[in-house]
Amino acid sequence: MTVRQLNAGNWLNPPAIYTQSDEELTLETGSQTDFWRDTLYGFRRDNGHAFLTGVDGDFTAYLTFKGDFQALYDQAGLMLRQDEAHWIKAGIEVTDGMLNMSVVVTRQTSDWSTFGLPTSEQSHRLRITRKGAAVIVQFRNVRSRWQLLRVANFPEGPAQLGPMACSPQRSQLRVTFTEFHITPPVEQALHDETIA
User: Fold this and answer.
1) Which of 33, 74, 78, 160 is a Cys-bridge partner for 94, taking CB atoms 3.0 to 4.6 Å apart?
2) Rounded distance, CA 167 to CA 73, Å?
3) Is the separation of the CB atoms in 148 and 190 below 8 Å?
4) Contact predicate 84/175, CB 8 Å
5) What are the pLDDT digits (tens) for 72-116?
6) Which residues cross the membrane (predicted)?
């Protein structure tokens, strides 16, 4: 069974400007919003925007989104969160003058990995699968296949999941989210490309 969630959930740090329906969520970020915890920079920020719904057990979640990504660290995508010290955010982030697929895994402290995109497509698609204590992050690549970004350890148990967006260096990053849905976990092997 598929659960669609773009009009069902709760805001963590609601943006001042947003519109919402069953099919679409559009928002503009507040000034200097971010999710980060300690590593390298020595600060904690937990003021990014996320629209979260409860999840437990194993699942696969899909999200399609687009935004006017321009400034350093502009970002948007999916967040899986237990509390302020245990969360994952994955999606687009601007660094080094280009768009990157980015994953930050926070278990008390944050770590960060990026993958530079060869093109600047208007829409981006993510897939997060949780199986026990493993979280698999994938994105739809230029060959229309699910490309692996990260396999991470994450605490089992209840959590929250949903679209997120931040703009650490500015305000008014505009992002539109569509096609957010949660299904039973995909059984496709990690590197199996036979299923488009």
Assistant:
1) 74
2) 6
3) yes
4) no
5) 999 999 999 999 999 999 999 999 999 999 999 999 999 999 999
6) none
Report pLDDT digits (tens) over 28-37. 999 999 999 9
**Closest of 93, 17, 92 to residue 49, by C-alpha:** 17
What does R_g of the chain's alpha carbons equal in angstroms? Answer: 15
Q: With contact defined as beta carbons under 8 Å apart, do 93 and 102 qualify?
A: yes
**Cα separation values, 126 from 55, 103, 189, Å:** 17, 11, 17
Tell me the CATH number for domain 3-183.
2.60.120.200
Mean pLDDT check: name the lowest of 21-25, 45-49, 66-70.
21-25
Phi-psi region of 129 (alpha: psi -120 to 50; beta: other; left: phi over 0): beta
Please count the CA atoms within 13 angstroms of the CA of 121 that sit on its side-chain side: 17
